[in-house]
Hints:
- By secondary structure, this protein is an alpha/beta fold.
- The protein has helices at residues 6-24, 59-62, 67-76, 169-178, 190-200, 217-226, 250-264, 280-290, 305-312, 325-330, 339-351; strands at residues 28-38, 42-52, 92-97, 100-105, 111-117, 124-132, 137-144, 151-155, 162-163, 185-186, 206-213, 234-237, 269-275, 295-301, 333-336, 361-362.
- The protein is globular and about 60 Å long.
Amino acid sequence: MAKPHAAAVLEDRWNAAKSAALARSGWTLRFIGFTGYGSTGHVRVLARLLMTRHPHDVEEADAVASPLQRTHALRLRRGWRSFLTTPAMNTPVTIEVGARTIRARTDRSGILDVLVADHDLPPGWHTANLTTASGVRGEAPLVITDPQTTFGIVSDIDDTVIKTMLPRPLIAAWNTFVRHEGARKAVPGMATLYRDLLQRHPGAPIVYVSTGAWNTVPQLTRFLTDKGYPLGPLLMTDWGPTNTGWFRSGQDHKRACLHRLARELPQIEWVLIGDDGQHDPSIYGEFAEQRPETVRAIAIRVLSAREQLLSHFTPVASDPLGPTRRRRATVPICRASDGYGLARLLCVALDGMPVPSDVVVEN
Length: 363
């Protein structure tokens, strides 16, 4: 292997020193369970292990708080708190999933990402039990897809389900670190669209893929729940230095997630939903050309001229979905400004219903 990048080495040393100092001060470990996914043959377990002063995190209070108390708590919680964390690096963890018990280690960011085979779990929602060598316990939810299920949804997050005006740096920093969680706005109609699609396809998985940081998963889960979005795995990335450079490629992360989903759930035909404010059109289009048998349709939320201008200083999309002859012949492409418009378009694309007079579908 190549020598790790100097930035990654420095970050690891800093985190190791923080962990040692916090442990001497009486801090312990705490799991944050992320939603994993899989089939009856294998499942991907996702979690993060952090240093904590209080083993019982504030998220646990959300489960017992009244809706009014919870809403008030959301409005008082700012995003920067999610980034003041110290990962438990390279820590041994025992994972129990159904009939299987395996041992693994967290990575340099405290992330646990393990594929467990032969778990004997039936389709539906389950729980993985996690235990450290020191006896700290945690859980991670799992959703197992039925082998007969052939429909699924992959959704972007920023500017697809949440209005963020990314990637303009100042707006991104403000939305991520400063604004109250409760101040975030949902894109109109998207939650309704997702619920309707899943209601028409019982047992179908929904997977959210984003270039956002793993640190934000708890607050994003709260947002999705409060706004009525169906819950599913959130596949995020790790901000900061990597073994190869200062930052990782968000586009490569999305491409890798799509291809991994295609390998792990090969029977699923995915509806890929994103927006034209960043690189979703080209990434989805490229994936559809490479794996046309796994893409049922592409749905792109069209940002307004104002949103485009705030995102990348031009009032038009900088990354249009340029359909080639092959893509146009195999994968329907839908464009609309919100979830309500995309719902009408997808009815046409997925069910072959008559085309409404005010919408157009490319195929």
